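User: I'm putting together notes for a lab meeting next week and I want to include a structural view of one of the chains we've been expressing. I don't have a solved structure, so I'd like a prediction I can at least talk through. The sequence is below, exactly as it appears in our construct file.
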Amino acid sequence: MSRITYLFLAVFLAAGISLAAPKQQTFVGSISDSMCGLKHMMPGQSDKDCTLECVKAGSKFVLADTANNKVYQLSDQQKPKAFAGEKVKVTGTLQGDTIQVSSIAAAK
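Assistant: Thanks for the context. Below is the predicted structure for the 108-residue chain, given as structure tokens.
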């Protein structure tokens, strides 16, 4: 009887762990920088130029979701460079306010 109990417990724990694992989500917003966030502050510059200048000065790339008034940190700081200032879809898992980036693609 105890073997059946241990087997049931092992199956139950395995199921619980698989349900607790973070799931991939898709987030839509613009690639911005951690200093400007939702609104770029450099007058006379495009969003792309502002983002790249701020990152060059030490800021980090972020996803600015203006629809939900939320800024997400991005785990990957290489992929966003190609999309600076552009609207994108970021796929990954959310941990706190950081997206563990799996992919970034241009959004329409």
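A couple of points you could mention at the meeting. The first strand starts at residue 25 and ends at 33. Residues 17 and 59 are 36 Å apart (CA to CA).

User: Perfect, that's what I needed.
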